[in-house]
Amino acid sequence: MECSYVSSSYNVVVGSIGIQSWNKVQVKSSKPGPSRKVHVRSNYRAVPAMCDKKTEPSSKQSEVPSPRKGRVQIEYCVGCKWMLRSAWIAQELLQTFESELSEVALCPSSVSGTFQIHAQDEIIWERQRDGGFPDIKILKQRVRDVISPTLNLGHSDCK
């Protein structure tokens, strides 16, 4: 399943959330316009999705993502205010590996000083172990080595 969020009048697919059972709930609003549906999953908050009047999500949205696609998880310390850095790294990775990644997850941590990047459940960067924050060129090479070893990164491949 894909999750989508409302952006103006368009559905924007944000990321893959795996195969889960969903319950659809119709939400009435006093504002004119299309109805809203809220997809609810147990142990997760509701994810609003704007749908056309009484139409189901397209078949493209209901497809299961390819298991060959990679997943990157960025775990960062909330107290150290590293969310913006994490979001920037996520954007860089999504732009570089647009067809190789199905998801980049930002995971806030309450453990002081935490900054780890996982690719396919393998730690590829740890701030304390690797001596600070990653240079984006080095990080892209490490992600490539795990996700798609044959991919050419262009200028980021030069040593």
Structure write-up:
It is a single chain. This protein has helices at 59-62, 83-96, 127-130, 136-147; strands at residues 2-7, 10-16, 23-27, 36-40, 47-50, 70-77, 101-109, 115-119, 122-126. It is α+β, with helices and mostly antiparallel strands and 159 residues long. Strands 7-6-8-9 form a 4-stranded mixed beta sheet. The chain has a 3-stranded antiparallel beta sheet with strand order 3-4-5, with no helix packed on it. Strand 8 and strand 9 (122-126) form a beta hairpin. It is globular, with a radius of gyration of 18 Å.
The number of distinct structural domains comes to: 2
Spans of at least 5 consecutive residues whose pLDDT stays below 50 are 1-30, 35-55
Structural class: alpha+beta
- Major sheet details: 4 strands, mixed
Q: CATH superfamily of the largest domain, called what?
A: Glutaredoxin
Strand content: 25-35%
What is the topology, as strand order, of the major beta sheet?
A: 7-6-8-9
CATH architecture of the largest domain: 3-Layer(aba) Sandwich
CATH class type of the largest domain = Alpha Beta
Q: Looking at the structure, what is the overall shape?
A: globular
The value of Rg in angstroms is 18 Å
Q: What letter string, H or E per element, gives the SSE order?
A: EEEEEHEHEEEHH
Number of strands: 9
Question: Percent range for helical residues?
Answer: 10-25%
